[in-house]
Amino acid sequence: MNEQIIEEQKEYIEKVKELNKDKTLYYNILTMGCQLNENDSEKLAGMLEEMGYIETSDVENANLYLINTCCVRENAEEKLFGKLGELKNLKKKNNAIIAIGGCMMQEKHIQEKLRNSYPYVDIIFGTHTLHKLPEDMYKILNFPKKIEDILDIDGEIYEGIPIKRNSNKTASVTIMYGCNNFCSYCIVPYVRGRERSRTPENILKEIQELADEGYKEITLLGQNVNSYKGRENYGFAELLRDVQKIDGIEIIKFISPHPKDFTDDVIRAIKDCNKISRLIHLPLQSGSTEVLKKMNRKYSKEQFLELVGKIKKEIPNVLFSTDIIVGFPGETEEDFQDTLDVVTKVNFEQIFMFIYSRRVGTPGDKMENQIPEEIKHERFDRLKELFEKQVEENNKKYIGKTEKILVEGLSKTNEDMLTGRTNSNKVVVFEGSKDLIGKVIDVQITSEHKWYLKGKIIE
Ligand code: SAH
Ligand code: SF4
Ligand code: F3S
User: Fold this and answer.
1) CA-CA distance, 252 to 54, in Å (whole number)?
2) 30, 112, 192, 245 - which has most CB atoms within 10 Å?
3) Domain 402-457 carries which CATH code?
């Protein structure tokens, strides 16, 4: 049935293309949020290109502005409404279409606000109606009347949406949608619906095509990748082993796994598959068992440390990155010390740190003992300080080592140098010919500079 829906959308693509055939039209997409949203934007761009629109970074000249929103933290909201203010003035000049989609559009209070205070927004669509952009575009071009295309459902899977990828070397492949975990701070399960997995066949076909096109690195995406369920007896471990077999793909990454679902078969699959990155993202959120319980994370401090220990034992050279929230309701100084303790013990390569942000509709928002802003900030700074010390210490161990690196392009700060990332996601700059861009090469690290390393190519 969903195939038929996508076929219908392809007909709308043709109709819009026909309507626009004598015009040169530009679109501009602003993506907020995570890699899943980036991947969705690649699909939005894919559909727009097929409708005859051309991408531009020049907002002054766009005929269509599309914003793909996030609502995981409050600052995303401020950013959207700030942007809409700017677009209002631009619209007066060029009468462009304004379309907003993504996670924030699933929130009732946001829908209300847009309805009441932003009449100049033309199309509003949610996470479950992204594939209908062609139909929405066709309608707005024919009858200029505001469209609200949002569904409050568990969600479906649509295959075969056109895609325009951001890079021709690294690609993201969404393997599952939605989330069932309902961590008490998090809005994602409410805006992305329930967990649903793509079939292994569809995923492997997409990756095979990417390999045939010359992609070397792929990232498997999902809110909880290790709860992937392709079918009976085919989970994330089986998928990893099948992706490993695809010739041409040299580096496999995935985000995000949930510690509670990090089963032994997944650990074994990583161990057996040499293409899988040895940097594992393992979201901690808090180091305090008490806070973890209130967060509904389903593991304790000890269980997290045990899991890290087990993975380190099984997989030599493994490194970890993580997400941490400071200032969850009720977090005491002692709880925070537990977080610092885990950070010290695990020695993460990378930490994505967040200050707790109240999200309407989540259990966390209704909890008592919300932490005052200044304490949240003070804890954030202390965590950052501890981590930065660790970074400097860790960088030293790279010097003299040889790293396998996918050459991403020219260094942003020095066009004579090439840049890439180590297995552990550290930026490395080195001299070399532009012909190496897109290739995987050996680079020996020669010096460290806190946020990047320098190296030389080993012939
Ligand atoms: N599904 C993934 C990522 C979810 S969103 C996971 O479970 O790891 C990315 C990160 O944003 C989360 O890991 C969490 O650290 C952070 N986050 C989510 N909700 C938040 C909130 N209300 N306030 C602050 N940070 C939040
Ligand atoms: Fe949010 Fe938790 Fe789901 Fe991640 S696992 S998306 S943090 S509810
Ligand atoms: Fe944001 Fe939605 Fe991703 S809320 S973090 S864009 S799933």
Assistant:
1) 31
2) 192
3) 2.40.50.140
Closest ligand 2 atom number to CA of residue 258: 5
Mind listing the pLDDT tens digit for each residue in 364-422? 999 999 999 999 999 999 999 999 999 988 899 899 999 999 899 999 888 889 999 98
Q: Which residues contact 377 (CB under 8 A, 6 or more apart)?
A: 355
Cβ of 72 closer than 6 Å to ligand 2, yes or no, is no
Closest C-alpha residue for ligand 3 atom 1: 70
CA triple 384-418-421, angle to 5 deg: 40
Q: For ligand 2, what atom is nearest to the CA of residue 182?
A: 8
155 φψ region: left (φ > 0), alpha (ψ -120 to 50), beta (else): left
Mean pLDDT value across residues 226-252: 97
Q: In this structure, which residue's CA is closest to atom 3 in ligand 1? A: 223
The ligand whose atoms approach the alpha carbon of 180 most closely is 2
What DSSP designation does 285 have? B
Provide CATH code, domain 170-396: 3.80.30.20
Q: Where in the chain is the domain with CATH 3.40.50.12160?
A: 2-149
3-state helix, strand, coil in the chain (%, to 5): 40, 25, 35
Q: Whose CA is nearest to atom 1 of ligand 1?
A: 223
**For 292-329, how does the pLDDT look when each residue is reduced to its tens digit (9 = 90+)?**
999 999 999 999 999 999 999 999 889 999 999 999 99
Nearest atom in ligand 1 to the alpha carbon of residue 186 is: 19
80-114 pLDDT per residue, tens: 999 999 999 888 888 899 999 999 999 999 999 99
The ranges of the chain annotated as CATH 3.80.30.20 are 170-396
* Domain 2-149, CATH homologous superfamily name and number: Methylthiotransferase, N-terminal domain (3.40.50.12160)
Mean of pLDDT over the chain: 95
Joined together, the tokens standing for residue 114 give 């847009």
